[in-house]
Automatic annotation (TrEMBL):
InterPro entries: Isoprenoid_synthase_dom_sf (IPR008949), Squ/phyt_synthse (IPR002060). This is Squalene/phytoene synthase family protein. It comes from the Bacteria. Pfam families: SQS_PSY.
Length: 256
């Protein structure tokens, strides 16, 4: 039950965040690694059963453990929860909203509007980025900037995953091209606002704000009509991923 287990989960399942973690100060990495590993497990929980009630029971198990940790109760020995407790202690209770935001996934219901997508991304990607950034020293005054950046990056990730989400019944109800365009425009403007407010975020939080590779280019190509988000999932090459992470490591620049 060590940090290495969480590190391996992150390396295999979320290579972009794994690479970004390495940019953080060494003493801050355990908190990020365990947070991101927890997020992966929580996101996966609703899909471990096709029966909504059973899926919610699996998600509830994580919610209960986080609530107990928030009250000061150490979790049972576990590959993720044990190192999470070591890194976060009672502050792990603050991570409970990450589990609550995934309850709708258990029901396999598509999102009905662009507003619903924005709210979902805010509650998932937005909450995760703020928890990470705050842990790395971002002050409360920077929360709006982090929220804007998380929304832009989160919407790009959601749109990139839309073909898979549609098949799972978790995408966009009605599959309207104009909704995709509107979400893309919201994402671009959110990223621009965050870039304008970047001075509110300390350099120590750069690792937490990494949006992933080629986000602006992806959004531009969607608006130009070169990518149909309902049928295409553009691949990120290993070279593009390495180049994007190298830029973050060398410059500390998370904005575009």
């Amino acid at each position: 039950m060590t940090l290495e287990a969480c590190t391996e989960i992150l390396r295999q399942q979320d290579p972009d965040r794994f690479g970004a973690v390495l940019v953080a100060a060494p003493e801050r990495r355990p908190a990020l690694v365990t947070l991101y590993a927890l997020n992966l497990e929580i996101a996966r929980a609703p899909f471990q059963s096709a029966e909504p009630m059973l899926a919610e029971m699996r998600l509830q198990w994580w919610a209960d453990r986080l609530a107990e940790m928030g009250r000061g109760t150490a979790p049972p020995l576990h590959d993720v929860l044990t190192p999470l407790w070591e890194a976060w202690a009672e502050a792990a209770g603050e991570l409970l909203p990450l589990a609550e935001a995934r309850r709708r996934d258990c029901a396999r219901e598509p999102l009905a509007s662009t507003e619903a997508v924005v709210a979902y991304v805010d509650a998932t990607a937005g909450a995760l980025m703020w928890l990470a950034a705050h842990r790395l020293g971002a002050p409360a005054a920077a929360r709006g900037v982090v929220a804007d950046h998380a929304l832009g990056a989160g919407l790009a990730a959601w749109l990139r995953a839309l073909p898979r989400l549609q098949k799972l019944g978790l995408g966009l109800d009605g599959a309207r091209a104009e909704d995709v365009r509107r979400l893309t425009e919201i994402a671009r403007e959110s990223l621009r606002r965050a870039a304008r407010g970047r001075r509110a975020v300390p350099g120590s939080a750069a690792a937490a704000l990494y949006p992933g590779p080629r986000v602006p280019r992806f959004l531009i190509e969607v608006l130009r009509g070169n990518i149909d988000c309902f049928v295409e999932t553009p691949e990120i090459s290993p070279f593009q991923r390495r180049a994007s992470l190298a830029r973050l490591a060398l410059s500390g620049r998370w904005w575009r």
